[in-house]
Amino acid sequence: MTKDWVIEYFESEGTCFGLKGSERVESVQSPYQKIDIYNTETFGYLMLIDGCTMVSSRENFLYHEMMSHPALFSHNDPKRVAIIGGGDCGTLREVLAHECVEQVTQIDIDEQVTRLSEKYFPELCERNDDPRAQLLFIDGLKWIDDQPGESLEVLIVDSTDPVGFAEGLFTVDFFKQCFAKLAPGGIIVQQSESPLLHGQSIIAPLHKNFRAAGFSDTQTLHFPQIIYPSGWWSCTMAKKGGALDQFRQEDAQAKSFATRYYSAQMHQAAKVLPPFLSQAIDGLS
Question: What CA–CA distance (Å, rounded) separates 28 from 236?
Fold first, then answer.
């Protein structure tokens, strides 16, 4: 950090991101990671985990809407949903906006992320008391392993970067477990980093790993995410049986809840990949 600025340095790519306003209002060392909350001048509160920007008051809707609505509208009837990670509860809030969803289980190993979100990002946690929601603070890998087969329609992997304890959430073995727990037609979606910086190192291998685990089709969608490296982010879906070329477009257009970024048109547009990314995916998947 420098005077009056909160800066995350992304050394391997020679880039950084900063926000003006250096007031750190809380710092917690959990058993798993260091969590800092800053109050910035233009983006409201900002959460950092181990020095990496995670979520801010101003832009969080971009990530949470795109991590949830494309997957849910790509499934014919999503009733049972699980979220691995997602401790800030923004993705949970978006999932619960779908009236067809009957049960959502969120599994994040670090309870402190949720408690700090309740304090500084209450808008993300406004549906935490929904009777359809269950919040667990345990190991997501173990939770998946313990679930009965074909017990989920949608699985959202809202994880941090693939390092440390999150590294296991990007492997073929994990995706094989997920495949077994999804019902036929089930969909998994994984946050998949920056198309510009990680197209060949993370996104293309993710498609390959999904296919190796048994999924029949994969699809990456991209969207802006200003506080993450390069300002350009993605999520990648995989389907258990069938194709991902269509989604419930009429339902998305007539949705009963408000969104700030997601729409049926944005969903369709996000499916169109630039040639360099589609070529990288085609080369490995």
Answer: 31
Cβ-contact 243, 258 below 8 angstroms: no
Please confirm, yes or no, whether 158 is among the known catalytic residues: yes
| Contacts for 21 with CB less than 8 Å, ≥ 6 apart | 4, 5, 6, 38, 39, 40, 41, 42
C-alpha 203/C-alpha 197 separation (Å) is 10
Interaxial angle between packed helices 204-212 and 275-284, expressed in degrees from 0 to 180 and rounded to the nearest 10: 40
Inter-CA distances, 181 with 80, 109, 134, 155, 188, Å: 11, 20, 18, 9, 10
Which residue out of 36, 88, 110, 158 is catalytically annotated?
158
Residue 170 binned pLDDT confidence (cut-offs 50, 70, 90) = confident
Cβ-contact 72, 96 below 8 angstroms: no
Task: Give pLDDT tens digits for 35-92.
Answer: 999 999 999 999 999 999 999 999 999 999 999 999 999 999 999 999 999 999 999 9
Cβ atoms of 166 and 81 within 8 Å: the answer is no
- Reported pTM: 0.95
**Which H or E run contains 52?**
strand 52-56
Give CA–CA dist 200/204, Å, rounded. Answer: 5
